[in-house]
Design brief:
Blueprint lengths: L7 H9 L23 H10 L3 H12 L4
Bound molecules: zinc ion.
Amino acid sequence: MAIIPRSYKEFKWAKAYGANLITSCNNCSMDFSDENTHTPEGWINTQQTGICEDCHEDFLDNMYGDPT
Ligand SMILES: [Zn+2]
C-alpha cells in the first residue's frame, strides 16, 4: 500500500523512512512544503498529480476560470 502523506509532518516522516514519494512539484520545481501545500487534500494531490497545491489551484483557475 502506498504511503500518501496528508500533512507536511507526515510527508517529512514518510521521507525520513525512505518511502517512495514524489518530493517536488513538476510545475514550479519547488520541494513540497507548507509554503506551497496547505490542506490534507492538497497533500494527497501531491502524490497523485505531482504538483503542489498552489500550482493545482492555478491549474484549476486557468482551466475553469476563477469564479470570484
Ligand atoms: Zn508547484
